[in-house]
Structures are given as structure tokens and as C-alpha cells.
Amino acid sequence: MRLIKFIFSITVIAALAAAIIFLCFYIHSLLPVAAAVALAYTLSVIAAVCLLTGESPADFKCAWLTVIVALPVAGAALYFLSYFSRTHKRSAQPAMPVTGCDGYEYFSDGSTYLKRLETLISSAKKSVYLEYYIISKGHIWGAIYRQLLNARARGVEVKIIYDGLGSALRAPIKDFKRLKRAGAQIKVFNKLLPLPVSRLNFRDHRKIAAIDGDAVFLGGVNIADEYANLCSPHGYWKDGGGLFFGEIAAVYSAVFLKAFDGKERDYPHTMREVTAKLRVLPVADEPVLLGSVCEDYLAAAIYSAKRRVYIFTPYLCMGDKLGDALEFAARQGVDVKIIIPHIPDKKLTYAITLTYCARLVERGAKIYTYTPGFMHFKGVMCDDGVLLGSYNFDFRSMRLNYECGIWGGGALAEDAVRDFEACLAVSEKLKQKKKCAIIRILSRLLYLFAPLV
Fold first, then answer.
1. Average of pLDDT values for 175-183?
2. 377: nearest Cα among 287, 202, 203, 242
3. What sign does the dihedral 355-356-359-360 (CA atoms) show?
């Protein structure tokens, strides 16, 4: 059957080419039109060949191929523009070693997380490193800003990275200028520039706050009022994360500094067996085309799960690797439960999420919507392990964003499971939704152009 389809496709292409050549010979007025068609066809074929022979993942190729086929000239031009503007320094983040954690605090809401962050900054003695997708003007930033000024007055080193798109039109520019005058160092990740020279699609989605190299905050919380529910654009905003002490903080200080100045640093790797109460695995990714450390870890954990796979996520638009793993787990009788928002923040993204949910429900997974409002918490629990951090369960987090997280077990996983079950108690089961082929195709385009929608 495949051979017949291939022969038919070749025959149709040859017939079209012959028809164009015939018309050009006998109707000379069509020559310019035919030349334009031939040029567009040739450009699209070259782009498709370059794409298919490259080392990009299958999801990436599928998305770009859709664009090239749908827009023969513009799609090919976009692809080549993207190709030549790519940096060749991007490479897969190497897996980091298992690290010691002397203790942790688990936050099931953003308000507690942000108050604790303010407290630790107020007592910082050496350094404060902040790396956030969103830093927004408001009450929360105002409180942290005052503590940062006080820290600089005490001689504490202050460095900040914020994302140029995530914080667009929201960043407290005047406050940043005053902090710089006080000696703080502040950088914008990928400023918004004209498309030909911008790297708009690659975003810094991390949420890191490293204090004195001894404590680090990780999770889904950004520095903005909605994360503490001081404003409610989408109902109750469910978020959280963790504060981790010990060697893990030194690791993430190194991760931050590499992002800040681009210099490679050795990660601490001496396990303090006596003092470390918990062994954890740091996970960090940069936007790469050759794979994702987090995606590989998650796929392996889901495939090996025997009892449960619980997922908090605001967006469910995963690639084939994680999609196949979840379907396999559900078919094997593993308790696969996923909580998504009840009130979305982006309607198009939510429509795509529902399409992926429909496929998973057909295969035995259970999907729930968080009825109080918007689920922004990010966590995956597989049996007795948990991943917490900035990763959404979607294409962008696994392939195009700078992300980070922490994989742990023991009490940390138990805290996450309890939090999940508490959210489950106020969630309702998603009603079966029909899969939509058009939305499914759009999901591939979202993979490429999500920052624009």
C-alpha cells in the first residue's frame, strides 16, 4: 500500500511538471507565471530537504513541514531565516550529578513562596541571584525591590535576569535603573528586536532565586501580584514550589551565573553524606534541537511507573515521546491523573490542551480541571519520585525554553502527592472532548510560534 501511494505521488508530481512545461512551450504568455511557480516549488523543495535531512526532532520537523507546505514561499523563507539566525553554540545541557540537599520547604501556594523569598533577601549576606520569566510592577515587586536596595546598601551582590518577552510592558524599568545605580547588575534575556535579528522563539522560562549560595527557590512562581492572588485575572491562581538548602543551592548559583555571563562553570558534586538529608537530581535545559534532559528523564520515569503518574500543568501539548509514555502507562493500568486549569489564560492554548486530553482519556488517563481557577503549578509524580520546577508539560518547555527543576523522592514526593490530592478534591473530571484535526495541526504551529499568540 505504501509503495502504491508513493508511485501515485510521484506520478502526480511528474504530471504537474509536464503540464507546466507543455503550457510554457505553447502559451508563451504563461512563461512568467510558470517561472514564478517553478521558483516557489524549488524553494519549498530545498527547504523541505534541508529540514528533513537535519538533526531536528520529529516534532520540530512536522511543525516546520506544515508551515512550508501551507505557505510555499513564505514558509520556506521563514525556515531559512530561522536557520541562518540560529546560534551554533546551543547544545544539549549535560545531565548534572545527584546532589545533596540539607533540607527543604514545600510551598503549596505562591503567596507563602513570595513572602519567604522576601524574608531571605532581607537577611542575605553575600549574594542574591534572581532569574525569572516575569518580573512585574506591583505590590509583590515593590516589597522585594525595597529588600534588594537594602541588600545593596549592606554590600550584597545582586544580579537579576528577566525575560524580554515575559516581562514586556510589565517590567519595573525605573526600579531597575535605580538598582543599577546602587550597584546591582541586571540583564534582559532576548530583548524584543525586529524579527530578522531576534531570537523571539527562545525564552528564559526559569524561576530561580539563589541566596548566598546556601538556599535556592525553584518552582512555577514568577514575581507578579497574580501569583500571590493579590489580583485574580483567572480565578484563584494555584502555584507553588520549593526552597532547598545545601549543596543544591550552589549548583543552581552556577546555573544562574552561566546564564548571566555565558561562562561554563563546574557544578559542585561532592556529596555531603553526613549532613545531606535528601538526595536530589538537578535538571536544567537550554533551547536545543538534539534533545531535552528533562524530557528523557520524564519519559523513562513514566514508562517505569507501576502505581501512579500524577501531573500538575497549565498546558498539555507534549511531543510524541511523552505522549507515547503516558498512553503506555495508562494502558498498563497505572493510575494516570492530570490536573489542568478550569479557567484558562490563553484560549487557543487551552483548546489545544483539550485536544491532547481527549486522546489521553480514550487510552485510560483521567483528566481533571481545577475548579477554583487557574492551575499554574508544575509538577510530575511517578510512583515515589517527583519533578518540581518551571517545566510545563508541553513542547516549548521541553525544546525551546531555558528551564530548570529538581527531581527528588522521599518526603518531597509525599508532600507533592498530598498537594495533588488536595487539588483533586476541588477539581472536576473533564468531560470527554472530541479530537479536532485542525487544532492538532495548530499545536504543531504553536510549537514554533507560541510567543506570537
1. 97
2. 242
3. negative
| Mode of pairing for the β-strands spanning 335-341 and 316-317 | unpaired
Q: What is the DSSP letter of 228?
A: G
Which residues in 205-314 belong to E strands, given as ranges? Answer: 207-211, 215-219, 236-238, 241-245, 278-285, 308-312
Residues with Cβ < 8 Å from 33, sequence gap 6 or more?
A: none
For residue 232 the three cell numbers come to: 485574580
Q: How many CB atoms lie within 10 A of CB 78?
A: 18
Strands 99-101 and 278-285: antiparallel
- Cα within 13 Å of Cα(428), Cβ side: 8
Q: Per residue in 10-53, pLDDT tens?
A: 565 566 666 656 656 655 565 666 666 667 777 777 777 777 67
If we measure between CA atoms, which residue out of 329, 337, 394 comes closest to residue 370? 337
- SS3 assignment, position 421: helix
Which positions ≥6 away from 216 have C-beta within 8 Å? 208, 209, 210, 243, 244, 248, 249, 252, 253
